[in-house]
Structure formats: C-alpha cells, structure tokens
Fold this sequence. Notes:
The structure is a single chain. With 175 residues, this protein is α/β, with parallel strands linked by helices. It has seven helices and six strands, in the order E-H-H-E-H-E-H-E-H-E-E-H-H. Helix 2 (23-33) crosses helix 6 (133-154), helix 3 (48-61) packs across helix 4 (81-88) and helix 5 runs antiparallel to helix 6 (133-154). It is globular and about 40 Å long.
Amino acid sequence: xxxxxxxxxxxxxxxxxxxxxxxxxxxxxxxxxxxxxxxxxxxxxxxxxxxxxxxxxxxxxxxxxxxxxxxxxxxxxxxxxxxxxxxxxxxxxxxxxxxxxxxxxxxxxxxxxxxxxxxxxxxxxxxxxxxxxxxxxxxxxxxxxxxxxxxxxxxxxxxxxxxxxxxxxxxxxxx
Length: 175
C-alpha cells in the first residue's frame, strides 16, 4: 500500500530565506525511496500557531497519512515543535521518538537532548525529526521500516499485528 507523506520544515532562518532548507529535502528523498508519495513540502517559522495550523491542514484538510517535521526539537526557547505537535494530536506515539533517540545515542550523546515527539491526529501520524540533514537521515532511518505497519493499522488496512516482521523472520531462520 502506498501512503502519502508531507514534510514540514520548522525554521525561522529557512522561512526568511537566510538559509537553504537541507533537512526537509533529505526527509522527502528518504520517504520517496521508501515508497511514499510526498504530496507537499513546506517551511514555517518557529511559531507554535504556524506549526499547528500547518499540521492541522495537512492532517485534516489533505488527509496526509504521514507528516514529518524537521527542526524545532532542541532546547532553544524558540524550539516549540514538540509542544505544537502534541497540542494537535489526539493520541501520543511515544515509542517512535524513543526509538529515534535510542538509535541516535549510538552516534552521539547529544541525542538525549532531543525533545522530538510523535502522535496521531485522526488518520495521520505526525513525527518530529531534528533539524540537521544528517540527524534527519539517522532518525528517520531508525523508524521508517516500522511506520508503514502503523499506518496500515491507523488507516484500517490489512495490518496483521500477530505476523512476524521481516527482521523477526530472519532472526528465527538464523536460530
């Protein structure tokens, strides 16, 4: 099943045209390579209201299956992406952010400083990614293989939660 995806970059400097957006295109490329149809990429400033409005439009208005954000997940006072995301989500999906942090900790101890969140709004899954292209690749790469299964369940598809994953099947054969 092919899912739609959108990428929302959250950055004051990219929004003002002071810096090119490299993280958003990195996420879009990975999603396309994984078989997602990227329907939109956009840049918004680090303002909770702008982030929330874009997420609501993408989830409710465009019925986008997967929405990934890039940026605004750190400790800066202007980093409000997780709060904006959780404010529009009806259900949290904390395991996604936990998996990203765990994978990133293998690369850098600074991964523990990520405040990224993930949640569900209607039929859409929203996942926060860091703002650097390298961190986007690391974090999205850590969770991308599992997201399609979650989206199948979320969208009422034929997901079989009891079926072993491809990785588990390989592990069972090795034993």
